[in-house]
Each structure stands twice: as structure tokens, then as C-alpha cells.
Amino acid sequence: MWRPPSAWVTRMRSTGNIPNRSLPPSAFLFTLLLVISGMSISFPGYSQRFFVPADTFRQDRFWISTGIGTAAYGVVLVGLQQAWYAETEQTRFHTFNDWKEWRQMDKLGHVWTTYNETRWLTQGARWTGMNRSSSRWTGASVAFVLQTSVEVLDAFSSKWGFSWPDMAANTLGACSYLAQDIIWAEQRILFKISSNPVDYSSGPVEGQGQPGTITYRERADELYGNNFASRYLKDYNAMTIWMSINPASFTPVKPDWLPDWLNIAIGISGENLYGGFDNSWTTASNEIVTADPVRYPRITQFFLAPDIDLSRIRVRSPLVKTLLYG
Fold it and tell me: Staple 307 to which of 91, 180, 204, 265, CB 3.0 to 4.6 Å?
């Protein structure tokens, strides 16, 4: 992940040293525009038209979109099974109040996921030729069903449970897209995610009256896994959720100096999260260990940074436009 000069990121409230955080993820993609544009030249006209949404409903495109979506959903479920559920005991259906867990970072993750699922699915529906209204409601409905199915998996896991706060966050994500599409017919506020690896301490976690037998790095591996996919999904210390706002779209008369694609992003992240609700836990050997609350306080951080809305960059190629939309 490309990282900006530290002066580009402003911390609005935090504790301790300023962490090394990235800009919203679209920023580093700006340099790929020339590459993508060059690639598009090699595509013939017919292939270019393939990426243009149909004027009327086309059944062949509907089945292509459905097949791609189903395959992607299957891949995600397999990934979640390996990252979350593989080593967790199954139990009966039950609920779980996790509102205060992970300093709400997981709730922001639900908002980001459902918002972007709705956005991508709506675009897929538009590509098949559905009208704007049908597309938006199809996208939101399917996204909500997908997220609910994951919540049901949680409900049968002894480690978690069906979470009404998660469902509320899913609803907020879908409604964030719907409201903007209904009111403005565009997305002026985007939700994005970035993740930067954290260099966890190799020092031992403090125990009750004696040094702990587990290090902070080992605890992070235990919680978040030790591969890229698992860390990207689960490491709340590395994750930043961004709300990226487009000032030009809110300006009745846009100044010449303000680019259409320039956004201002507000980011939220957690730090020193070594447990869901607190930083104290029991090891496999029944030793109670607690992270030093002075050196490792559980905090929420806010960031302010420039961002790029790639979908607002004007290009002629339908292929490039489709790639930038993602």
C-alpha cells in the first residue's frame, strides 16, 4: 500500500505516537490511469461496448451477472470459513450483543461492506438493462441478504452469535447508498477501507504478578491470523474505514480550481486492540494476561486526508470507466 508523507494525514484525536496510516485506497491508484488507458487501446470496439450498460433488459447479461455474483459469493464464504469459522465450535442458534466490541470498528466494517456490495450489485443490475429504480432496490436487497446469511453463520458459532448491532450497521450501509441514489442520483459520499500492516511488539504480554508467556505479536497472530487475507479482514489495528466526501458535488457553482474528482476523507481506526472488549484474556495454559494499559491504551483515532473519487475522472473508454468505478 502506498503511504503518503505524514503531513498529509491529520490526526483529529488520538493518544500516543502517530501511526503510519495510508490515504484512502483510491489515492495510490491514480498512477495506474496511464497503464489502464494503454490497455484499453488493445480492446476492439465490440469488447468496449460490452462494458456499456444495456438500454433495455437483456437476459444473457442477467445470467452473466448472476453467475459472476454467485461465484464471488462462494469464494467469500470459503474465505470466511477458513478465516473465521474453521476452528470454532458450532452450537445452536443464539444472539450476541457485541456493540462495545472492538471499539465499534467491526460495525464500521459492516457499514463499508454493505454499502459497497449495494453499490457494486446496483451497477451490475444496471449493466443488465434494469432501470435505475429496479437496480438500486435489487442491489440493496441482495446485499442485505448476503450480509444476513453471514450473520446466520455467526449465530451458530459458539464464539459469536447473531448480532442486532451488526444488522443495524448493515442496514445503515445499504440505506446510505439508497438515500444518495434517490435524493441526488449519484454517490457524493463514498465508504472506503484501507489496511496497513502493524509491526507488533515481540515483547511479552504482562501477566498477573509474573511475566506473560505470550508476546504481543503472538497474540495478534492468534486473533487476526498471519496471512494477508486474514489480516485484511480481521486486523482492527491495521484497518481504517473512510467516509470520502466530494465537495464539488455539494457546490451550486463549482469554482474552476476545484476538480470534480477531489474528495475529502474522514478516517476512523482503532489501536492497541488485543481483545474484543478489553485487553485481558486467559491463555490455553489458564494464565491470565493483560496488556499494559499505559503503553497500549485502547483508543479510537480520527484522520483527515485528501482522496480521489476515481469514478469522477472523465474517460472515454467504457472499460476504463468500469475499472475506475470499483
Answer: 265
> Rounded to an integer, what is the distance from CA 197 to the centroid of its chain?
15
CA distance 246 to 262: 6
| 176: CB partners within 8 A, 6+ apart | 111, 115, 189, 191
What's the pLDDT at 229? 79
- What tens digit of pLDDT does each residue of 36-72 get? 344 344 445 545 677 777 788 888 888 988 888 888 8
* Whole-number Å distance between alpha carbons of 95 and 152: 10
The partner residues of 308 in beta bridges, in order of sequence, read 262
The closest of 1, 26, 18 to 269, measured between CA atoms, is 18
Query: What are the domain boundaries of the chain?
Result: 6-325
* Partner residues linked to 239 by β-bridges: 195
Nearest Cα residue to 273 out of 303, 297, 241, 240: 297
Q: Comparing C-alpha atoms, which of 238, 299, 241, 232 is closest to residue 267?
A: 241
Q: Cα separation of 194 and 245, whole Å? A: 16
Strand partners, 162: 95
Residues 304/130, Cβ–Cβ less than 8 Å: no
SS3 136: helix
Helices (H) then strands (E): counts for the chain: 9, 9
